[in-house]
């Protein structure tokens, strides 16, 4: 089956920056959960925003960058408006910044529905309530009428996912979707995302700092370091990592139940990148 995403040699340089934020990154995505892991500033979110074509202030080059039949390098903004929000969606870390603070949660979902589908206000409301049910909100009529500041972080994140599901996207990019949530709520949100991959066959890109989370949740993992893709591994075979950066990340993970001792600290080496700045 053709991949949902096919990216070859993607490089991105922000205007005014001497160094590219992303260099020669290549990967494909099928109907699977793909993790992108790396430290802060390694370029993970830049890759996510590039796929959505949300980088106005950056120069982007690639040999190929396609989403299904859409050529993301050459698509017009008009085409992208149709693709973005309908066939591909993004979930960000904190719903507080994504939801409109002065509109009731359900109203925001209903209005989003009406931008895509011609229908009455009552039909849009009905659809919004159904979406809230789909993300396991127990009392959807009540949550429909709540303002974003009245719902918890986990509930807000589910409202965002409900909004995203309106158009049955094929690709979801989740950028640290659970970092602001406590452990039990995090599991609920992950279960919903997992259901989307299993039941609806979407492709999910999960951007995260958390190697343990990605290891448990994803099928494959891309490891980024200093804008480069240093390694791609099956999540269940992370322990077979060859690159010293990945090995260092794994060694730096605290282990519950293991012997206590000082946590290992990642010691970066210039030799991880060669003189041309490529992965050694
Ligand atoms: N709008 C921007 N303008 C200029 N430089 C930027 C911009 N956004 C990000 N950068 C730079 O690009 C590099 C990659 O940033 P990016 O946010 O993609 O990293 P990240 O791995 O997602 O980090 P984090 O985990 O902290 O979100 C960093 O050096 C960052 O400072």
From TrEMBL:
Instruction: Supply one GO CC term from the record.
Output: plasma membrane
SUPFAM superfamilies (UniProt xref): P-loop containing nucleoside triphosphate hydrolases
Q: What species does this protein belong to?
A: Sagittula marina
Major subcellular location class: membrane
Bilayer topology annotation? Peripheral membrane protein
Protein name from the UniProt record = Peptide/nickel transport system ATP-binding protein
Family classification: Belongs to the ABC transporter superfamily.
Sorted alphabetically, the keyword list is: ATP-binding, Cell membrane, Membrane, Nucleotide-binding, Transport
Give the domain of life: Bacteria
Please report the stretch or stretches of sequence annotated as the ABC transporter domain. 7-251
Q: Where does the record place it?
A: Cell inner membrane
